[in-house]
Write a structure and sequence with these properties.
With 506 residues, this protein is mainly α. Among the domains are: 78 residues, no CATH class; 234 residues, no CATH class. It is 73% helix and 1% strand. It is built from 24 helices and 2 strands. Helix 6 runs antiparallel to helix 15, helix 12 runs parallel beside helix 13 and helix 13 runs antiparallel to helix 15. The chain is globular and about 80 Å long. This is Sodium/nucleoside cotransporter. It is a multi-pass membrane protein.
């Protein structure tokens, strides 16, 4: 083993000396591995000693807990107010999105299932974590550079799909959506299966969940599921905690469902990137959505029962795939497992596009009878959701077309919405006129980024049925209580707007 380590160190040094810029990816991966190994070693051999050193500080904190928390809250509020005053003095329009954050939180609180039981620690820490992530990603040079670099690497990685799909489909790959975007889902699913087999995904999910749990005070099971949603889909993530679903409270199950609606699976993200959607924005949107999903879940459906899972010691992360014997079998099973997902995506696109065409034809016929033949589903959505888009920080003149995308995403699915956003982006890049007649052909780059965040997630009515159908086998009474099903869809849609508003106020 020492010889292998020495060989790798020699290889690493050689690669860095020859071309450090080319070896950046290797440096990042090696650094992560070293930090992880160092943490495990320190925790194993010196964990108890370090814990004992903090016992006096912990006692002091417990004795003055109220004062310390009070001072901390006042300091944070003072810094936030100061920052808002200084920052919005340069860009006053940001006050609109800040007002949107306050309004959306108030709306969710008003319709909360148990207003008196809201754990504000979870709510504020969740929003705070999202704010800090957004601040790092957007307002700091290292954060902006790192996520742009990560997005570029993901794009390069996904381009390898063409080698497989072009062999199977030939020239059809460059012209037909089904042969261009859907093979990415298969490739990504296969890679995820390999990462699960190696234990990399489980380790990453546990670390992310640990950060959210110690700050927000949520239970280990719901936190693990929400953290898993950053990487896997809304039906796969709950499988990470499959043995514990039967004993989870209604609030915990609600958090699992909201977490599934808040983010998009890595495999589906690959398909969206193939549309031309900015990869770094999609990645940061999924990461930022996780803590806010827990926060909004605990605000809309607070915990009123006693959780059976108060410590992570007895919680084991289950794997969402079958037990493979080697990496090749893991890759094969991951590809096979994606067949259903690919078929589901294709079938839903066919069905919803056909339904949308029928709805628009019907609305046009009904409107034509009274002198409004041009009315469509998109036009209705543009007026219904325009206030929401405007409160997210979209300029008024662009808020109607963004509202169309939000309505399409909520009532149909996110694929159709991202496809429309991709067309708008393509029109801007190709230099089309901003307006042709009364129809807007493209939106600003800032609005495109906001839309990318707003559409990032599975929050639509069809997804609600998928989640309930996929999970109710464990405990039907908990998954479909009288007020929970509509509550999840409505509150999650509001959550997404909050996610964008928090980002825009940065």
């Amino acid at each position: 083993s020492n010889q292998n380590e020495f060989s790798y160190v020699a290889y690493f040094i050689t690669a860095c000396v020859l071309d450090f810029e080319r070896a950046i990816a290797l440096v990042v991966l090696t650094s992560l591995a070293v930090v992880s190994k160092a943490y495990d070693l320190v925790k194993t051999y010196k964990g108890d000693s370090i814990t004992k050193c903090f016992i006096p500080a912990q006692r002091c904190f417990n004795n003055f807990r109220g004062w310390i928390i009070g001072v901390f809250v006042v300091a944070v509020l003072a810094l936030l107010v100061t920052w808002l005053v200084v920052d919005t003095s340069k860009r006053p329009e940001q006050l609109i999105s800040f007002g949107g954050v306050c309004m959306f939180i108030l709306v969710i609180f008003i319709f909360s299932a148990h207003r008196t039981a809201v754990a504000w620690r979870s709510v504020f820490w969740g929003l705070g974590l999202q704010f800090c992530i957004g601040l790092f990603v957007i307002r700091t040079e290292p954060g902006l550079t790192s996520f742009q670099w990560l997005g570029e690497q993901v794009q390069i990685f996904l381009n390898y799909t063409k080698n497989g799909s072009s062999f199977v489909f030939g020239p059809l790959v460059s012209d037909i959506f089904a042969f261009q975007a859907l093979p990415i889902v298969i490739f990504f699913s296969s890679v995820m299966s390999v990462l699960y087999f190696l234990g990399i995904m489980q380790w990453l999910i546990i670390k992310i969940a640990w950060v959210m749990q110690i700050t927000m005070g949520t239970s280990p099971t719901e936190t693990l599921s929400v953290a898993g949603n950053i990487f896997v889909g809304q039906t796969e993530a709950p499988l990470l905690i499959r043995p514990y679903l039967i004993d989870m409270t209604k609030s915990e199950v609600h958090a699992v469902m909201v977490g599934g609606f808040a983010t998009i699976a890595g495999s589906v993200m690959g398909a969206f990137i193939s549309f031309g959607i900015d990869a770094s924005s999609l990645i940061s949107a999924s990461v930022m959505a996780a803590p806010c999903a827990l926060a909004i879940s605990k605000l809309s459906y607070p915990e009123t029962e006693e959780s059976k899972f108060t410590s992570e010691e007895n919680i084991k992360v289950a794997c969402g795939y079958v037990d493979e014997q080697n990496i090749l079998e893991a890759a094969s099973s991951g590809a096979s497992a994606s067949i259903g997902l690919v078929a589901n995506i294709a079938a839903n696109l066919i069905a919803f596009l056909a339904i949308l065409a029928f709805i628009n034809a019907s609305l046009g016929w009904l409107g034509g009878l009274v002198g409004f033949p041009s009315i469509t589903f998109e036009i209705i959505c543009s007026y219904v959701f325009m206030p929401v888009a405007f409160m997210m920080g979209i300029p008024f003149e662009e808020s109607f077309i963004v509202a169309e995308l939000i309505g399409t995403k909520l009532f149909l699915n996110e694929f159709l919405a991202y496809q429309k956003l991709s067309e708008l982006k393509s029109n801007r890049v190709n230099g089309l006129d901003e307006m042709i007649g009364d129809e807007r052909q493209w939106i600003s780059v800032r609005s495109e980024i906001i839309c990318t965040y707003a559409l990032c997630g599975f929050a639509n009515f069809s997804s609600l049925g998928i989640v309930i159908g996929g999970l109710c086998e464990y405990k039907i009474p908990h998954f479909v209580p009288p007020s929970l099903s509509p509550c999840v869809a409505i509150h999650q849609n509001v959550f997404l707007t909050i996610s964008i508003s928090c980002d825009v106020t940065l």
